[in-house]
Specification:
The complex is a heterodimer of chains A (393) and B (75).
Chain A (H helix, E strand, L loop, with lengths): L9 H4 L5 H5 L2 H10 L2 E4 L5 E4 L2 H9 L4 E2 L25 H6 L7 H5 L2 H13 L5 E3 H6 L1 H11 L6 H13 L5 H24 L5 H7 L1 E2 L2 E2 L2 H32 L1 H9 L4 H11 L4 E6 L3 E3 L2 E3 L4 E5 H4 L34 H18 L3 E3 L6 E2 L7 E3 L1 E4 L1
Parallel strand pairs in A: 2-10
Antiparallel strand pairs in A: 1-2, 3-7, 4-14, 5-6, 7-10, 8-9, 11-14, 12-13
Helix pairs in contact in A: 7-9, 7-17, 9-13, 10-11, 10-13, 11-13, 13-17, 15-17
Chain B lengths: L2 E9 L9 H5 L4 E3 L5 E3 L10 H9 L6 E9 L1
Antiparallel strand pairs in B: 1-4, 2-3
The chains are: A alpha+beta (393), B alpha+beta (75).
């Protein structure tokens, strides 16, 4: 990505793949909030970037002017691969989401908590004495294994899943061939799983999707495969990024770390605050009808980067928005989006992050970033540490 | 005659998207249906002592779906 022309003006020429944006976007968003507040770029064939909470919220609610049929900003429009319900608009959205909801309620997710806890302990048990890479050896392994467990596929498939995710969410932004290849490979992989589950159903999400109906009709194979691709892509590097950002923060803030070690009851509220301050997910919408929001006119055909992370740092909504306050009492953050596309996996993600922190802090109360090995942030629409060298004790 | 305020919570089910913040913060005051969509427990009357939880639920709902109202009861 180093060959991209450098950005000279964030408000008229922003680029979310610019190394400065990847490294530390928060000052850029502050500047945009004061200057624009909706930035625009001609890059990626035209994209808007609302930086204020109220504008992000207004767009998320406005399904008439903003469609979810494209949810990732790419260099060129890719062939469409519907992945219901995330790529669905009303009226198709509601039934596609409703069929999934029962599998993701807090109670349904609670049944996976013991497995998540065992996974975390197993991973910590494999660490060396001195330290680990918090992103590679811990954060990324947890959601991969949990989602594999929920889909009833081997937890050892992690490397394959991560390759697809990288190709879809990072490489795929500039490389359509990589996106296409990953999608075809995922379809082939899941078609095989679906076929085997049809023959021998189990107590897993794939069997659940095969057995469920919309208006009395079973889901078409294309719908099932799209939803399975979605669960895999959306369920892994998002949560991995969130867990990694929590560890990154705690490594550098001994006062927060020690408080959570001393009083684990604060962990749930700290998780919400980490989700606010380090929200990993930026979605996108396609403008389908001209409209005006935040004093900016949105032209059909262009995209909108819907940055929940930027909304969550808006000081008009959150006093001291750039400070992490682990017991913040008023926290209407939208890390999981807002409106009809609220992340269906939010209860799962919250459970995984909470368990990951509880298990880590119980065994590794003291840790620090390794000053001799640089950490690395992801590039793309999900923000989180990809390398996070940590020293214990 | 002492005036005590009784709070009532109500979930606007058209707004609720199932973030589950109210249930997590005030489990005594809210229930979830089989889709994870919230509603107030019982008739929404907040037992004395749980007022802070009612306000907390309201202050953390991203959809602004939790309403809290106050009644003046004279005893």
């Amino acid at each position: 990505m180093s060959t991209r022309p450098p950005v000279t003006d964030w408000s008229t020429d922003f680029d979310h793949l610019d190394p400065r944006w990847i490294e530390n976007p928060y000052p850029i968003w502050d500047e945009l909030r004061q200057k624009c507040p909706v930035a625009h770029t001609e890059r990626f064939m035209g994209v808007y970037f609302p930086a204020r909470y109220e504008d992000v919220r207004a767009i998320a609610y406005d399904t008439e002017h903003f469609s979810s049929r494209r949810i990732i900003v790419r260099e060129s429009p890719p062939p469409r691969f519907p992945a219901p319900p995330i790529t669905s608009d009303p009226p198709e959205h509601r039934p596609a989401k409703t069929v999934l909801l029962p599998a993701f309620t807090p109670d349904a997710i609670k049944s996976h908590e013991p497995r998540a806890r065992a996974i975390c302990r197993e991973l910590i048990g494999r660490f060396e004495q001195r330290g680990c890479d918090g992103a590679v050896d811990y954060a990324q392994e947890i959601p991969v294994r949990v989602i594999a467990h929920m889909l009833g596929i081997p937890e050892t498939e992690g490397a394959r899943f991560r390759k697809w995710i990288y190709e879809v969410l990072e490489l795929g932004i500039t490389d359509n061939a990589a996106l296409l290849r990953a999608t075809e490979e995922m379809n082939a992989y899941f078609a095989d799983v679906v076929e085997r589950r049809r023959a021998a159903p189990g107590d897993d999400l794939v069997s659940y999707l095969i057995g469920t109906t919309i208006a009395g009709e079973p889901l078409a194979d294309k719908h099932i495969l799209g939803t399975l691709r979605l669960l895999l892509i959306a369920g892994i590097d998002t949560t991995w990024s969130a867990i990694g950002s929590c560890l990154w923060h705690l490594a550098q803030h001994p006062e927060d770390r020690r408080r959570l070690v001393a009083d684990p009851a604060v962990i749930p509220s700290a998780v919400e605050e980490f989700l606010r301050a380090y929200a990993p997910v930026t979605m996108a919408r396609e403008v389908v009808k001209e409209t005006e929001i935040g004093g900016c006119s949105f032209k059909p055909g262009e995209m909108v980067l819907l940055s929940f992370p930027a909304a969550n740092r808006d000081p008009a909504m959150f006093p001291d928005a750039d400070r992490v306050v682990i017991d913040r009492t008023m926290n209407r953050h939208i890390a999981f989006g807002v409106g009809i596309h609220r992340c269906i996996g939010s209860n799962l993600a919250r459970m995984e992050i909470k368990v990951a922190l509880e298990e880590w802090l119980a065994r590794i109360p003291e840790f620090d970033l390794d000053p001799n090995v640089p950490m690395k942030w992801s590039e793309g629409t999900v923000r989180g540490p990809r390398l996070l060298p940590i020293l214990f004790g | 005659m002492a005036a005590t305020k009784t709070l009532h919570v109500r979930v606007d089910r058209d707004r609720c998207q199932g973030h589950n913040r109210c249930k997590a913060l005030a489990p005594e005051l809210f229930e979830l249906d089989e889709l994870g969509i919230a509603r107030e427990a019982g008739d929404g009357t907040v037992p004395h002592g749980l007022e802070d939880k009612a306000w907390l639920a309201r202050a953390n709902c991203p959809e602004l779906a939790v309403e809290v109202t106050e009644d003046d009861n004279h005893r």
